[in-house]
Design goal:
Chain lengths: 254, 261
């Protein structure tokens, strides 16, 4: 990597306490550089999703600050992929993908919907209803919808957790290809060590609730990464490193 | 599969034939007079002989039912949307909607007939029974929207109107249609109850009025004929609304999709 890109978003000492008193995040710090692929890794309930929702503006931080490099680059130009495909079942895939444009009152004159569908390999299914798609295809449609507004930042909340391994590997590869082609910033939440190592440039290991950054691990393996990387000793070494960090993060729990 | 489908059509017909046959046999075997239990043949003949009068009565009842149904559909959906958008209105009025629903309509009908001209009272009666299922079901539908989809709309800064129109209303369609299906039958029941309550003193000319009058005049075959028409009307309404529901939901909702086995 050359000179480090400027940060696109920075979280300073962000805390989140829910109404019932659950402390999801306590003093969470994160800085994400433009074009970076970062994973938030941690056990269930460690506040990874909460951190993502705070960045997206879906949830308000109870403490701390979320700072955007570009004043205008706020939550408005973010793509979000949920754990479930979250498609509207009553309308076609194309209409689902078109939704963000429609809500913004924008016309699709540049063929953004077609392009987004093309990028995730769903061109042939534009007219299909979500029900007619497999789990992996639904997730592709969901990713196409997140990409249709050309967001600079893509937030993904355990998007492949519910998929079978074969489909997940395929989607991992396709996601990396998209990331390299589009040069967007991705923040990827996962509880899978293997997935985070395979995808990320940098892994943020979180402590159990209240979520805090335990440590950050860079994965300096070159892209494009493929199945050869997945079976390499290099990959296994990173996985061991990250697993150990995760165990320590868990053990450090009060 | 086709054998199963054939059974679904044939078996109810067999049951109907058996019932009609035993009814006829019973009437003949015990020589039951027609003012107690008319034979099926006599009912059919009455149906044909009195057709002009019965059909015009049926028309009156159907018009009231249809008007009540439309009012219940629009009123119920509108009220549900209002409740969904403004919590204060829901808190203020929902209890009274429930009160209106749980008070037996037969008990309200005579009161309505005192204060309103009869056609209006009948309509009001039918509306009162029919609007609640639409309101309750639509409210349930509007409140059961996928939270992630709500978040998605929030992320893209959708207006209240956009959320309602593009998300909540389509998501509530299955429940709304279920409510309408119930309301269709209830509109008919409400119209009949009000006319029966108005009784022979009323100025009505609907089927229920025919039934009440025929009872007084001991024209039992005509009662049966009118009753038959009423239930056929009820079945037709239910069937029409089921078809509507199926057509609207067939491409996406579980309830309308056949499962491949």
């Amino acid at each position: 990597m050359s000179a480090p890109a400027p940060a696109i978003v920075t979280l300073r000492n962000v805390g989140k306490t829910f109404e019932r008193g659950t402390v999801a995040l306590g003093g969470f710090d994160l800085s994400v550089r433009d074009g970076e692929f970062v994973s938030l890794l941690g056990p269930s309930g460690c506040g990874k999703s909460t951190a993502l929702r705070v960045i997206a503006g879906l949830s308000e931080a109870s403490a701390g600050a979320v700072e955007w490099a570009d004043e205008k680059q706020d939550a408005g130009r973010i793509g979000f992929v949920f754990q479930e495909p979250t498609l509207m079942p009553w309308t076609s895939v194309a209409n689902n993908v078109r939704l963000p444009l429609k809500l913004a009152g924008a016309e699709d004159n540049r063929g953004a919907v077609t392009q987004a569908l093309d990028r995730v390999g769903l061109s042939e299914f534009a007219g299909a209803f979500p029900r007619e798609l497999s789990g992996g295809m639904k997730m592709r449609a969901s990713i196409a919808r997140a990409l249709v507004t050309e967001p600079r930042l893509l937030l993904m909340d355990e998007p492949f957790a519910a998929l079978d391994e074969i489909t997940r590997f395929k989607l991992n590869n396709d996601l990396l290809a998209l990331w390299q082609m589009l040069k967007r910033t991705v923040i990827f939440v996962t509880h899978s060590v293997f997935e985070s190592v395979y995808l990320s440039q940098r892994i943020v290991v979180m402590t159990p609730r209240p979520g805090r950054v335990f440590t950050e691990i860079a994965i300096p393996a070159p892209y494009p990464r493929d199945e050869a990387f997945r079976t390499s000793a290099n990959y296994a070494g990173f996985c061991r490193l990250v697993s150990e960090a995760l165990s320590k993060a868990m053990a450090g729990a009060p | 599969m086709s054998f199963d489908r054939a059974l679904r059509i044939v078996l109810p017909i067999v049951v109907l034939a058996l019932v009609v046959w035993s009814w006829r046999a019973l009437v003949h075997a015990f020589a039951i007079p027609s003012y107690v239990l008319p034979s099926p043949g006599l009912v059919a003949r009455t149906l044909v002989d009195d057709a002009p009068m019965l059909v015009s009565s049926l028309w009156v009842t159907l018009v009231i039912t249809f008007e009540a149904f439309l009012l219940a559909a629009f009123g119920g959906v509108l009220l549900a949307v209002l409740f969904n958008q403004l919590r204060a209105i829901e808190y203020a009025f929902y209890p009274y909607a429930v009160v209106l629903q749980v008070t037996p309509i037969v008990a309200i009908a005579p009161l309505l007939l005192i204060y309103l001209p009869q056609p209006l009272a009948v309509l009001a009666c039918a509306w009162i029974v029919a609007f609640f299922p639409v309101l309750a079901n639509t409210t349930l539908g509007l409140n059961s929207v996928d939270h992630n989809l709500l978040d998605l709309f929030k992320l893209y800064k959708a207006s209240r109107w956009q959320v309602l129109w593009n998300l909540k209303l389509p998501a509530a369609l299955p429940q709304m249609l279920a409510g309408l299906r119930i309301a269709g039958g209830l509109s008919l029941i409400g119209a009949v109850v009000a006319e029966i309550a108005a009784g022979t003193a009323g100025a009505g000319s609907g089927l229920a009025y025919r039934i009440a009058i025929s009872a007084y005049q001991l024209k039992i075959p005509r009662m049966f004929a009118a009753l038959l028409l009423l239930s056929v009307a009820g079945i037709a309404i239910f069937f029409a609304l089921s078809v509507l529901s199926h057509l609207v939901l067939r491409r996406w909702h579980e309830s309308a999709l056949g499962r491949e086995r």
